[in-house]
Amino acid sequence: MSIFKSILKKVTGYKELEFKVAGVTFKNGRKTRQAILRAIKWSEPPYEKVEITFDRYDSEGKLAIGVYANGDQIGNVPAELVEEFGQKWTGRYIIESYDVLGSGKETPFGFRIKVLFE
Question: Which of 12, 27, 32, 60 is deepest in the core (most CB within 10 A)?
């Protein structure tokens, strides 16, 4: 972790949440989430630089929070963490770290992320 983030957490009282993104094997129309994760892992265009964002939406009458990379959905906050994530997400957030997991061969790619909330 950078010194800046370490100081920021101590001074501001940022809350932290780390999780594996759910739904990474679903499709987004013709583009699969696995193809997006593969491109992120290998820094292929347009994922040489990645901006991670979140968006709340309704999924079958329940609150869901999508996880997006450069505007493309790569999955969701796991259902069991949606309430906690929603409570912490009241303002700004910082992506402290993320990692594409796996090789995509024997097992599908996964995505782990650590978020700091103001």
Answer: 32
pTM here is 0.88
d(CA 43, CA 61): 36
Catalogue the E-assigned strands of 1-118: 15-20, 27-28, 31-32, 52-59, 62-69, 72-76, 93-101, 110-117
For residue range 52-81, what is the model confidence (pLDDT) as tens digits? 999 999 999 999 999 999 999 999 999 999
Cα pseudo-dihedral 104, 18, 64, 68, rounded to 10: -50
Q: Do 63 and 86 touch, CB atoms closer than 8 A?
A: yes
